[in-house]
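In the current project phase, the collection of sequences with tokenised folds has grown. A sample record is quoted in full directly below:
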Amino acid sequence: MTEKTDYELVDGFKNGNDKCFNELVNRYKERVYWTARRVVTTHQDADDVVQDVFVNMYDGLKDFRGDSNLFTWLYRITINVSLNLLRKNKIRQFIPYEGYIEDLLPSSETADAKIMTQEYQTALEQAILSLPSKQKAVFTMRYYDELPFKDISKILKKSVGGTKANYFQAVKKISDKIRKEFN
């Protein structure tokens, strides 16, 4: 008996055969895991990504047209889910604030400095959360993912100039809110 192709398994799944889906999962789970692992670096996070990828695959497979190779489609999903997890983790850890508050904090690590650091982190997080959605998206992709403006503009289907404007407006709004909070 010959092994079924990806397209045959996709068609079988679309026709109600869940065994075909399970076979696709078994075929690609290791490749998806290692793709995720290179992005998120920890085993636990990679496992979470793998679960999310296959949930997305289950939900989206009925619409898969076969324009690309199945693994190419899964790869894109894996990268997107991995980046979303990294974003969530970075938000939980707050934005690294070293360099932004060097002038605000005394050089010694005192109790007052720790309190001020916590207040700064909270103010910074609130400033980011208060941005309009376009500015927040551009700021997040540029700051967290360090994507070039050209790539961000393609993702958002906006001009490079408009993308840069959104980013610099976001930076200005964040800076203004932080200054207002600490002055």
